[in-house]
Amino acid sequence: MSTQATPEIQAFAGLLRAHAATTRRFNAELVADHGLTLSDYEVLLRLARAPDRRLRRVDLAQQVLLTPSGITRLLAGLEHNGFVERVACQSDARVSYAQLTPDGLGKLRAASKTHVEGIRSLFGEHFTVGELESLSDLLGRLPVDDAGDDACEA
Amino acid sequence: MSTQATPEIQAFAGLLRAHAATTRRFNAELVADHGLTLSDYEVLLRLARAPDRRLRRVDLAQQVLLTPSGITRLLAGLEHNGFVERVACQSDARVSYAQLTPDGLGKLRAASKTHVEGIRSLFGEHFTVGELESLSDLLGRLPVDDAGDDACEA
DNA sequence: CGGATATACTTGAGTTGTCAACAATATAGC
DNA sequence: GCTATATTGTTGACAACTCAAGTATATCCG
Questions:
Q1: In angstroms, rounded to a whole number, what is the distance separating the alpha carbons of residues B133 and B76?
Q2: A34 is a domain residue
Q3: Cα–Cα 20 to 30 A to A91, which of A134, B1, B12, B83?
């Protein structure tokens, strides 16, 4: 007894559940249909949207909310499959870009066909467009702190 | 280009981000302050709320959205720390209960002090009570399918 | 220039979880 | 009662991360 139930905690609990449920489902779908993880998919998508279809590994990590280490490992898989290539940077020998290959773009397109449809149908079933917008708005307010580097407030 | 941006997909993306951000933060807090994982905490909480402070492992798994295998492993840790005990079931030799110990309850109380406060302050900072309620409502509409066992519709 | 410090990335070790296969017990139908 | 099937739980093998430490390169500043 006396164990909470404030609106804040309910919201957080809802977030945990909703994430586990949706993520599990879409990940399983992607793996079964295309041999891609949800993270793999996210990475391919980010690359496809980036200028020249390439991104520094650091930036990629930030965008998909992974550590640099995680990105190295994830990209190793995608490189192995020929979906991404490692491209050295001319002006800075430390950085190497992750470059989406034509194969990778093809894979992304094929995967997105079913994945996007899956998302649209699951969310479309349960929400109106207005609700989806407020959901995005609300979720978007939660901060992503990162590491506090450039979050200086001086 | 032409890569989507439908309201459904934006909502899903928001969900992924929001989960990663909040989860990472609270998990780090819990580990640092109390040596508990967020999952550990969830399990202790469920047990504390259950009748007699015990639950079958299967039911626990379902409540915290883990596989039975995951529960076995998680409980191994909690048992090792003396927060949970394994109790055999009289009427069914297959099942063993996970029983919260007084130590476990104490640990939960101590942890909840900071954890609940963390959640309240993060969510309280960004949302009104009305918004929290609609967030919970919206998130709660996403189904948790499980396995389709008893989800029969005949 | 040259040393201190910062940045980009990788790697080894550990964690947390999954899945598939299994053992043990329970239940149902004949 | 006894075999067929379902349910509960564990285990081995593995996947996907994280963290801490290390390497290589860049930049800043005296």
A1: 36
A2: yes
A3: B1
β A54-56/B96-100 pair status: unpaired
Looking at the partner chain, which of A122, A136, A145 has a beta carbon nearest the beta carbon of B10? Answer: A136
**Residue B63 included in any domain:** yes
Output the domain CATH number for residue B30: 1.10.10.10
Measured CA to C1', what is the nucleotide nearest A56? C8
Task: Give the Cβ contact number of residue A130 at 10 Å.
Answer: 9
B63 touches strand C (CB under 7 A): no
In-domain check, residue A149: no
A positions 47-66 inside 8 Å of B (CB): 48-49, 65
For B82-132, how does the pLDDT look when each residue is reduced to its tens digit (9 = 90+)?
Answer: 999 999 999 999 999 999 999 999 999 999 999 999 999 999 999 999 999
pTM, whole model, 2 decimals?
0.87
Residue-number span of the structural domain to which A118 is assigned: 10-140
Please give the tally of structural domains in chain A.
1
Give the residue ranges of DSSP H helices in chain A: 7-34, 38-49, 57-64, 68-80, 102-126, 129-140
Establish if B116 touches chain A: CB-CB under 8 angstroms: yes
Question: CA-to-CA distance for B137 and A17, rounded, in angstroms?
Answer: 12
Nucleotide with C1' nearest the A90 CA: D25
